[in-house]
Amino acid sequence: MIEKPYLLRLMNESEAVWLATVGTDGPSIRALVNLRRADLYPGPAATARTDDFTVYLSTSRASAKVREIEADPRVSLYYCTPARFEGVTLNGTAGVSEDETLRRALWHESWRIYWPDGAGNQDYVILKIVPKAIFGWHGSEAFDFKPEMP
Known about the structure:
This protein is of the alpha+beta class. It has helices at residues 4-13, 42-48, 64-71, 100-105, and strands at 16-23, 26-33, 55-60, 74-81, 86-97, 124-138, 141-145. It is 21% helix and 41% strand. The relative contact order is 0.21.
């Protein structure tokens, strides 16, 4: 039986997180930085590592993913460790957060290549994803996890 600590560890260690959105031409998937990775993003990870499976992602307000989410907030996220045959999918709804405190907490200085003036740049936004379904693979076994929903 898959338990919450295992899933949170998998999410925390995954090299990237893959985000799928629905656009006018169908599904679109892309890899984003995994803000839960404390080894790569120690500051953001302190906020991004939620126990309720809420996921935060940084992106550009001008991106296609933001337009797609505003038109249809249903998304799918995927975290995995292929070498261990582990993967977890979170299906839920996403929105763009306007919370300035959250934007600053999740900011990483390496992103100045995108937003030279830092976390205050209005093009820098946070996507907040609240999962409604969690399922995946552990070795050769499929699992379905029922999170406690608020």
